[in-house]
Amino acid sequence: MKSILSEQLCRRYSYLLTLLLLFPVSHVFSQHALTVDRNAYRAADQIVKQQVEFKDPGSSGKNLTWDFRMVQPINEEYTLDYFIPDSTYMDTLCGMEHRTRYYYTQKRDSLWALGFENSTTLMEYKKPELKLRFPFSYGDTLFSKFEGKGQYSHRLELQVKGYTRVQVDAEGELLLPDYETVKKALRVRTLRYYTETGKDSLQMTLDTYAWYAEGVRYPVFESIKTNLIKKAAKQGEQVQDTTVFTTSFYYSPLKQISQVQTDSLPKETDEPAGAAAVFTEAQYMPNPVETSLNINYKLTRPAQVWFTVHSALGVPVRQTSPQHLPEGRNNITIDMSSLLIGMYTLYVHVDDMVLNKVVMKK
After folding, report:
1. Less Cβ crowding at N or C end of the chain, within 10 Å?
2. Cβ of 124: how many Cβ atoms within 10 Å?
3. Cα of 155 vs its chain's centroid, Å
4. Where are the chain's structural domains?
5. Is the pLDDT confidence value at 264 over 80?
6. What is the sign of the dihedral through the CA atoms of 262, 354, 115 and 53?
7. Which is nearest to 135 in space by CA: 188, 95, 84, 175?
8. How many CA atoms lie less than 13 Å away from 225 in the CB half-sphere?
């Protein structure tokens, strides 16, 4: 009897071994995952982004299909460049776009955000924000609390607290604007909840959905939404969310370039000079503003112009539609009535150049 059982066990073991040899475990259980080798940020990489009409991310889940082939472009392409800002701190990486520097550090298997700075705002996180952890696959979730201090316009003290939840909440097929099809796409949702934003205690959420294609280091599509959260006036009343900003970006996989020479990139100081030469004689009235901000200006040549308003923490809260305008005098009115009292940065987008103006809301 024992010999018969032993023979049967040997046969089963031999059969299982044959299956493992024919179909390796890594193949049977393989799935698309973000990894350090394939998806960590790298110095000297350049990503070309194009702003497109907002695309609703839809539901979460598996075996989904996202069709982004017909999205309409809004803004000309511009770049996001990664580099080491200080050679004495090689573990700190900087990503720069639209004249704002975002600082990161990669520690073992985790990517952390350290803060950001531009001409109006400096923010340093004493509690960094966890952005990604590798490997990262469908169903994985990260949670971190962030806390930072900084300055706005070199005179207003800033402080921020909140939490971030990052989750791979969907996977499926992605149809891109250039008619390329991504069979194995992962969607990473990052919900950033601001629980404290200084004296005004403005609460808001920044909700970002990023789609990753297998074999491509950075996202290929992204949708962003900002909500202001109005506290309930009385106990028992429902908290209200107001969407104040939406946009999407397409990152062509063919234009995600590695090993770009940083000394050949456009200098930060080049952009304001170019924009100022086209966007001239600007008047921002009234400033401080209570309800409506009126902007009168002159273009020295035809250009595409649009405006965004950002909070003191850099979160977008207003956006106008890009317009192709003729040479000469133009004007626009931006509704500021629902924004809380405080200081904001108005960004003037002129083709692929940017100017900024500090605006006070009273």
Report:
1. N
2. 15
3. 27
4. 1-30, 33-264, 270-361
5. no
6. negative
7. 188
8. 14
- State the Cα torsion 176-180-186-192 to the nearest 10°: -30
Token pair 């701190």: residue = 89
CATH topology of domain 270-361: Immunoglobulin-like (2.60.40)
Dihedral sign from CA coordinates of 231, 234, 239, 242: negative
What is the spatial distance between Cα 298 and Cα 280, in angstroms, rounded to a whole number? 5
d(CA 276, CA 269): 11
- Answer with the residue of higher pLDDT: 298 or 240: 298
pTM recorded for the entire structure = 0.77
SS3 of the chain: CHHHHHHHHHHHHHHHHHHHHHCCHHHHCCCCEECHHHHCCCCCCEEEEEEECCCCCCCCEEEEEEECCCCCECCCCEEEEEECCCCCCCCEEEEEECCEEEEEEEECCEEEEEEEECCCEEEEEEEEEEEEECCEECCCEEEEEEEEEEEECCCEEEEEEEEEEEEEEEEEEEECCCCCEEEEEEEEEEEEEEEECCCCCCEEEEEEEEEEECCCCCCCEEEEEEEEEECCCCCCCCCEEEEEEEEEEEEEEEEEECCCCHHHCCCCCHHHHHHHHHEEEEEEECCCECCEEEEEEEECCCEEEEEEEECCCCCEEEECCCEEECCEEEEEEEECCCCCCEEEEEEEEECCEEEEEEEEEC
Task: Output the pLDDT for position 9.
Answer: 44
More confident residue, 256 or 113: 113
Quick one: tokens of 332?
A: 């626009």
pLDDT tens by residue, 303-338: 999 898 988 878 888 888 889 999 999 999 999 988
Least confident among 43-52, 119-128, 166-175, 308-317? 308-317
Average pLDDT, the chain: 84
Q: How confident is the model over 231-245, as pLDDT tens digits?
A: 655 665 556 688 889
